[in-house]
Amino acid sequence: MIKAIIFDMDGLLIDSEMVSYKCYRDLIESYGFEFTLKEYIKDYPGKQLITSLNYIKDHYHLDYDIEETITVFHESETKYIKEDGVDLKPGANELLKYLKEHHYKTIIATSSRQERAQGLLEKHQVMQYMDDIVYGFEVEHGKPAPDIFLKACEKLNVLPEEALVLEDSEAGIDSAYQAHIPVICIPDLKNPDALHQERCTTLLNSLDEVIEYIEKSNT
Questions:
Q1: Could you tell me the end-to-end alpha-carbon distance of the chain, in angstroms, rounded to an integer?
Q2: For 183, which of 78, 112, 131, 165 could close a Cys bridge (C-beta 3.0–4.6 Å)?
Q3: Nearest to 44 by CA among 19, 78, 80
């Protein structure tokens, strides 16, 4: 029986992946390399910023200071969020209200830095529907390792098999799979490949379809 819902944030609950793409694009193109949306979709969604920055540093043979680059990235991100705004994903409000009304435990598990996440979530008044949140700094290994979802279960005091993860990225699917927590994928910028589809309980088109899944699972 499903007792708890674990939400990814970026690309699943918050429509923020295009902002992240623009920030990575600006960074990489500042060194004279082209960076396409296709490349971003292939390697970046769902991963911690420091993991991606180390990957960029090695992949493009760059010599930059990671901490300084993190600061530049955050400044770029703040600018884009202020200019473009970031919306909730379709169906988010309906699902959050349903879960609250039906007394499900809820938590967000995000690799995002705390200040950024709090700003986005407060803007959309999301935390009134959540019991807790897990940040990447609270666990030793980020996605695709299982740590963050296991920590979410620990905070909610539920067993992995009593939880349901909602994800959009392959890294997040891998994380839930390794944690032995059922996972639904609601794709954002790309559909998961065949292997990751097999690791999912199901694929849905939007968050409001989760309600029907939960009702059928708990009958």
A1: 9
A2: 165
A3: 19
The C-alpha atoms of residue 127 and residue 121 are separated, in whole angstroms, by 6
d(CA 35, CA 42): 12
The pair of structure tokens assigned to 40 is: 């971003």
pTM of the model: 0.89
Closest C-alpha among 176, 136, 168 to residue 10: 168
One digit per residue, pLDDT tens: the chain, 219 residues? 999 999 999 999 999 999 999 999 999 999 999 999 999 999 998 888 999 999 999 999 999 999 999 999 999 999 999 888 899 999 999 999 999 999 999 999 998 889 999 989 999 999 999 999 999 999 999 999 999 999 999 999 999 999 999 999 999 999 999 999 999 999 998 899 999 999 999 999 999 999 999 999 988
Q: Would you say 141 and 160 are in contact if contact means Cβ atoms under 8 Å apart?
A: no
| DSSP letters for 192-203 | --HHHHHTSSEE
Instruction: Output the six-digit token pair for 2.
Output: 């499903």
60 Cβ contact partners less than 8 Å away, ≥ 6 residues apart: 28, 31, 33
